[in-house]
Design goal:
Number of strands of chain B: 2
Distance between the termini of chain A: 75 Å
Strand content of chain A: 5-15%
Number of helices of chain B: 14
Strand order of the largest sheet of chain B: 1-2
Distance between the termini of chain B: 24 Å
Order of helices and strands of chain B: HHHHHEHHEHHHHHHH
Number of strands of chain A: 14
Helix content of chain A: 40-55%
Structural class of chain B: mainly alpha
Oligomer: heterodimer
Structural class of chain A: alpha/beta
Chain lengths: 418, 372
């Protein structure tokens, strides 16, 4: 009897000894975490700030920062696809929130539902309701948004405005009044850069022409792409194009911004990463060195895009990845990242004192404006449509035929299932 | 007898592993790509573990050549043809010219040979980036004249939207017939000297008939497209062609130089003794002797121009329709738009175009060997 008791004791102690390290492990994460993104170069420091924060909380985890450069993730997305198809997903990857994620990865059943994480962390209340709707479907929430960018912003130089004796136009009609005068002075009225910035300009022009209700209806499949409203948007876009620079296709977006700053061009429509470029790289003060306003005819509308991270099914270090997502969604993480990246936080409770004047105004607008999704940056439409739209745009730049472009879009929408 | 068959067995066994591997990894996958191109694999859900694929026959090909959204692909295909022609003419012409100059054994020939061959050792990404800088609208080549006190050029090497030699895709069939007639007539003229009767019967006659018939009844041919769509030689591709020629003319130079050096000095002396001039020697003796070298240069260069990807990617980026190429389009269609079936169809079209270059060569090689 005594022996049996001793045996049981030994077994118990052995079991305790064996389980003890595992309990410790649950508190202290170890192993690796591979995060996949296209944030290198100018955006690298912002990502580093997040990684530092993660390392502070989980010192035992080795973070592998896998970046594939290329603006808007053009190259990274292709690399990610080959990895996922090859059955080698990273632990967590960057993706534009919205249809770019849903159309490609959620519809393919490759992502894990993050609703439990959102509920556990109380994120349902801190992220705006409209945003949560756009990053989720009826089956769940699929990614944690890190930042919010605004797409429909027009940039100009206040000093040059004064020199030329004009004011930044609030509507396209005003723009068409000013533009010929500028052209006569040898100034490009609107600076444009390579192909994708034309898509970017299109969405601001189309939003102005269609209005937010029709814009939303377009992507919900309720408004046809070959309807007269859309043809009108293309016509307006064609008219705007007449006032852009001829060498656009060989410029980067930064060079287009430079044209505005050094007075070769008057205006530029670009997302608010341009503010980050002008503040960080060009050392300009928002409001003085450069001016900003909503692109013509879109005052009170906030066309947004967001970067987010998701959790792919079969992630090799799932626990580490969830800890990473927790950092991304936290107020601390978001306020460490966004001032450096030049974007605003997706959370409603961010500490605005850390942000510059432009970002403060953007955060204010995000709170009160009508929020719509961007096409060029993956919120509104899936990748089939986006990629096809780039070729439609090339076709239009060559032929300048609004009707043909609308019809091509309609066919594309059918193919993309919008 | 027995030994011979044993040898054969050994040879077969040695070759077997590579035959199996090539069978699976080259021909098997070509077959798989052909099958994929006949499905509707694409769109939402294309990346699922078990994606839905339905057989739709040749629909993807029909869409590419006549569909509304295939316009980009058609321009790319036209670009690829122009690239190939210009690259072949430029690299072979320039390479042969340099080879002839170096064949005169100037001082420092070894050094010059290295200089001309050196660009080939660069990767396309590197030379593409350099050339993008050189051809930037407000820098590089365009500011060269200012050093001579002249106005800078303002040609947009990589972003010009101008095009020459435009044609309407609707008239595709008529144009194809014209090309056939042209080739027949040219071959006929070439053969005319040697065998006039055969030339008239087999080449010139049919060529003229086809050409005349197309000219007269071309309007009756079906239109390849329901709307007007013009494609042509985009001026923006000039920059890319220049860069490719720069990179590959050294290579053809090396090929020809090796050939020239292989021609014995006796032959050259004999030609000179018979009164051949320098030009005559190359025109009638040396270059005809290097026909195999020309053929291999054509085959290698045409493949390079059909696989052109990294150079264009580095010089004008992925979405520049003016300088597009089917290989680039295939990558974007497959990995950006998730349209795997259409991407496979583009790959197969490229494969078939490449085959048109290599199959005649293989056939003639085979015939020669049988004769020999």
């Amino acid at each position: 009897m005594k022996k049996a008791f001793a045996k049981i004791c030994i077994v118990m102690v052995a079991a305790l000894l064996l389980s003890a390290p595992q309990i410790a492990q649950a508190k202290q994460l170890t192993g690796e975490l591979e995060i996949f993104s296209w944030w290198a170069g100018d955006e690298g420091p912002a990502l580093e700030a997040l990684i530092d924060l993660y390392k502070k909380q989980n010192p035992e985890v080795k973070v592998i920062n896998a970046t594939v450069t290329g603006g808007s993730g053009v190259n990274a997305r292709a690399v990610l696809k080959t990895r996922m198809l090859g059955g080698e997903p990273p632990d967590s990857f960057q993706v534009h929130a919205g249809q770019e994620l849903i159309g490609t990865w959620v519809k393919s059943d490759r992502m894990e539902d993050l609703t439990p994480l959102f509920k556990e962390q109380g994120w349902m209340d801190v992220f705006p309701e409209g945003l949560v709707k756009l990053i989720g479907t009826d089956k769940g929430i699929w990614s944690v948004p890190v930042n919010i960018h605004r797409s429909n912003v027009m940039w100009y130089s206040p000093a040059n405005m004064k020199k030329w004796g004009i004011e930044a136009p609030k509507t396209w009609d005003e723009f068409f009044k000013i533009a010929p005068q500028l052209k006569a002075k040898g100034v490009t009225p609107l600076a444009l850069a390579q192909n994708w910035t034309a898509n970017h300009l299109w969405e601001s022009v189309a939003l102005a022409s269609l209005g937010p209700d029709n814009w939303d209806a377009l992507w919900a499949g309720k408004l046809k792409f070959d309807s007269p409203e859309v043809v009108k948007a293309w016509e307006l876009f064609g008219k705007v194009l007449e006032y852009t620079n001829a060498d656009a296709a060989s410029l980067s977006w930064q060079q287009a911004t430079d044209m505005v700053l050094d007075g070769r061009a008057a205006f530029n429509i670009m997302g608010d990463w341009a503010a980050g470029y002008m503040v960080t790289t060009k050392k300009l003060v928002p409001g003085k060195g450069f001016g900003y306003m909503a692109s013509p005819d879109t005052t009170g509308e906030f066309m947004f895009l967001a970067d987010s991270f998701g959790l792919p099914k079969g992630a090799p270090h799932r626990d580490n990845a969830i800890a990473w997502l927790k950092v991304l969604g936290s107020r601390e993480g978001s306020d460490a990242f966004n001032p450096l990246k030049g974007s605003i936080s997706a959370r409603k409770d961010s500490d605005l004192s850390k942000y510059n004047d432009y970002l403060k105004s953007a955060a204010k607008d995000f709170g009160k404006d009508r929020v719509v999704g961007s096409l060029a940056h993956g919120v509104a439409a899936n990748e089939t449509f986006m990629s096809g739209f780039a070729s439609v745009m090339e076709m239009f730049l060559k032929s300048k035929n609004p009707k043909a472009a609308s019809m091509a879009c309609a066919q594309l929408a059918k193919k993309a299932g919008i | 007898m027995r030994e011979a068959s044993l040898d054969r067995l050994k040879a077969f066994l040695t070759l077997l592993p590579s035959m199996i591997l090539i069978g699976i990894f080259v021909y098997g996958f070509i077959g798989n790509t052909i099958w994929t191109s006949m499905t509707d694999w694409g769109g939402t859900g294309a990346l699922a573990v078990e994606p839905e694929k339905n057989f739709i026959g040749l629909q993807n090909y029909v869409d590419l050549f006549t569909g509304f959204l295939g316009g980009g692909f058609r321009q790319d295909l036209v670009n690829a043809v122009y690239y190939s022609v210009m690259l072949l003419a430029g690299a072979i012409g320039l390479g042969m010219f340099i080879a002839i100059l170096l064949d005169q054994k100037p001082k420092g020939e070894d050094f010059l040979r290295t200089v001309f061959l050196y660009p080939m050792s660069l990767s396309f990404i590197v030379s593409g980036t350099i050339w993008r800088w050189l051809l930037a609208p407000q820098g590089g080549v365009n500011v060269l004249p200012t050093y001579l006190g002249m106005e800078p050029l303002n040609f947009e090497w990589l972003s010009s939207t101008a095009a020459i030699l435009e044609f309407n895709w609707q008239n595709l069939f008529a144009i194809m017939l014209y090309v056939v007639a042209f080739i027949l007539i040219m071959t006929g003229l070439f053969v005319l000297k040697g065998d006039p009767q055969r030339a008239m019967k087999r080449w010139l006659g049919p060529g003229v008939v086809i050409g005349a018939a197309t000219w007269m009844f071309g309007g009756l041919l079906p239109e390849a497209l329901f709307m007007e769509e013009t494609h042509g030689f985009n001026m923006a591709t000039l920059g890319i062609i220049m860069a490719t020629i720069w990179q590959y003319s050294g290579y053809t130079m090396a090929l020809y130089l090796a050939g020239f050096n292989g021609i014995s000095q006796d032959l050259r002396d004999a030609a000179m003794l018979d009164g051949a001039s320098e030009v005559g020697y190359y025109r009638h003796v040396a270059i005809p002797m290097l026909k195999p070298i020309t053929i291999s240069a054509v085959i290698i260069l045409s493949h390079i121009s059909l696989k052109m990807f990294d150079l264009i990617f580095a010089m004008t980026g992925p979405d520049n329709a003016e300088t597009g190429h089917p290989a680039l389009n295939m990558y974007l269609t497959t990995f950006r738009a998730n349209d795997f079936a259409v991407g496979a169809a583009i790959a197969i079209v490229l494969f078939l175009v490449a085959a048109t270059f290599i199959v005649p060569y293989l056939v003639s090689q085979y015939r020669q060997r049988r004769r020999g």
